[in-house]
Amino acid sequence: KAQAVIVLRMEEQPLTHILSCTTAAEMWEKLMSIYEKKSQVSIHLLQQKFFALEFKPRFKHNEGAAGFISQLEEIKSTLKQLGEDLSEKMVITKILMSLPDNLKHFVSAWESTASDNQTLMELTSRLLIEEERLNKSESTVALMTNKREIKCFSCGRHGHVQKYCRANRDESKGSTRQSTTRKTCNYCKKQGHLLADCWFKKKKENDKSQANETSNAFMSTVGDECESLALIGESDFGNNDWCMDSGASDHICFDAKQFAAIHDTNKVVAMGDGSTIKVTGVGSIKLEAWNGTQWIRSELNHVLYVPQFKINLFSVGKVLDNGYTIRTKKDKSEIIDKHGSIRAVALRHSKFFKMFFRINAQSNTSICNAVGSLNDWHSKLVHVNFDLVKRTLKQHNIAYEGNVNPFCKDCLMGKQHKLSFNKSESSAVEIGQLVHGDLCGPLEIESIGGAKYFLLLKDDYSNFRVVYFLKHKSETKRYIVNYLQLVKNQTGKTVKTLRTDNGLEFVNKELGEILLQNGIRHEKSCCYTPQQNGRAERENRTLMEAARTMLHSKNLSKNLWAEAIH
Fold it and tell me: Where do transmembrane segments lie in this chain (predicted)?
């Protein structure tokens, strides 16, 4: 139980450290030896980060004093969780030492503050106010600086524009001196400025520069097409939709239901960011493609099955390699064969071309050689032990991949129990010679059908078992009679011995008379000695463990226990 508690509270990666451990104490000592050292290293790294942190003035994405103090408090909080606390005075000292030159005067004002008021909260409040005041002052200075940089086109002086130029006012009064010296631009043919100061020329040059930047920006977003494609795939494309992609070297499908045939492979797909994704299989897909007038039966070969993808990709390069031609217009793309016939059409959908395919669902029913992991088979086979899973797969020539993960969390949750009693040797030599019976219940939660109990009857020789679900204990007699008739009609044999405990559902006058009339001997175990009927007790436990584990693994309601056992 202690081992289960440790495993259930750990992530998957650290579990590798305790695979070889056999006891809970050994697990704990190994984890302490590894992670206690790591916590000491973490403390040193956090302390280095605390003292190396720099104050960045508030500008664009920088948060200024607020962001700086917030980072320091976050480091302080993390260190406290690791058992190494920083005092508030140390944090205040770090803040004052890290202030930039334009806030150095604040240190003197802070030192003159009464010691009772020298708290981190007070420092933060006053520092934010001083930073805000300083930013407003700098904005005003910047505005005055920009005003001095304005240049007049008429007189060439700074500080005003042509509209408010004194020279223009003098000219309007009839000054012949200004009229003879009035400037004319050779670019826009307007008066009042020269070519070097022409606003229209500068505007045209800026527009041309922005156009070049836009072109470069477009070229740079081509590499991010995979990211945009993924977003579109999740929102606008369905499972049966295919997107034409000029960057894909192979056709890629993420839906296994579309394949007519598929086999496993060890290939990987290289992504645009340098990462790789494992290819689960390679196969063919039978479909119908729309050519603009009719549906044409087609088949895609060598299609990669990649479940991690969110969209199906139709490779342009693969089509061109097969001798087809692609003719693309503004809103439509056509695939043309060697004879000039249109074989398929793709229409513009947002920024991509969407293929018009219709998957032939009737033919896509045989997915062969689908290799599952050993843990998947363990889950499918009702969480039986891994040795039995391996033997079963080997007997049926079923391939599987992956190593055994000995820590199945659902098994740990559903199979905790007391140690079993030693198994008794079977003495039965034919069907019906000995039948073990036991009633389990009442269970905490009623099943959907209202059952609170289940009755188990198991033949000792064949291990064939039958389970009946009961609403009341009094129904036990009726179901035992049904079982006796079932054995007789199906096997031609009769039950000779029934072994149960001393529960009143088995030891009563009505059932005793039925057994006596049919010549069946009734063996009863001693009171409070369930090991004498251990065959039925163990079978009950196996059924309950399997049911609990299945319900837990799929997050299903507990009132489905009868369906799980059945």
Answer: none
Contact residues for 565 (Cβ-Cβ < 8 A; gap 6+):
454, 467, 543, 544, 546, 547
Residue with token string 């293929």: 355
Q: What is the pLDDT of residues 312-350, one digit of tens each?
A: 999 998 888 888 999 888 788 999 998 888 999 998 877
418 versus 524: which is more confidently predicted? Answer: 524
Residue 66 and residue 141: Cα distance in Å, rounded? Answer: 24
DSSP structure string for 336-403: E-TTS-EEEEEEEETTEEEE-EEE-TTTTT---S-PEEHHHHHHHTTT--HHHHHHHHHHTT--EES-
86 located within any domain: yes
Last residue of a domain, one of 116, 138, 160: 138
Q: Are 86 and 76 in contact (CB under 8 A)?
A: yes
Do the beta carbons of residue 471 and residue 452 sit within 8 Å? yes
Contact by Cβ (8 Å): 405, 411: no
**Co-location of 343 and 310 in the same domain:** yes
pLDDT band, residue 518 (cuts 50/70/90): very high
Residue with tokens 């079982």: 483
Length of the chain: 566
| One-letter identity of residue 58 | R
Number of folded domains that form the chain: 4
Task: Write the CA distances from 539 to 460, 467, 504, integer angstroms.
Answer: 12, 11, 21
Residue given tokens 């697990």 in the structure block? 27
Residue 261, domain member (yes or no)? yes
CB–CB of 155/195 below 8 Å? no
Which among 460, 468, 546 is positioned nearest to 499, based on CA atoms? 460
**152 burial level (CB within 10 Å; 0-12, 13-18, 19+):** buried
Q: What pTM, to 2 d.p., does this model score?
A: 0.35
The amino acid present at 225, given as its one-letter code, is E
Q: What pairing do the DSSP bridges indicate for beta strands 400-401 and 242-245?
A: unpaired
Do both 261 and 344 map to the same domain? Answer: yes
Contact 433, 497 (CB under 8 A): yes
**DSSP code, position 419:** P
Give percent helix, percent strand, percent coil of the chain, each to the nearest 5: 45, 20, 35
Cβ–Cβ < 8 Å for 410, 549: yes
Round to whole Å and give the CA distance between 505 and 517. Answer: 18
Task: Tell which of 108, 138, 168 closes a domain.
Answer: 138
Read off the tokens for 316.
């342009």
Under 8 Å between Cβ of 225 and 313: no
What are the structure tokens assigned to 104, written together?
A: 């150095």
Cα–Cα distance measured from residue 466 to residue 153, given in angstroms and rounded to the nearest whole number: 103
- Residue 393 lies in domain: 374-413
CB 490 within 8 A of CB 509: no
Mean pLDDT of 274-285: 85
SS3 524: strand
Residues 442 and 542 in one domain: yes
For residue 115, give the DSSP letter.
Answer: G
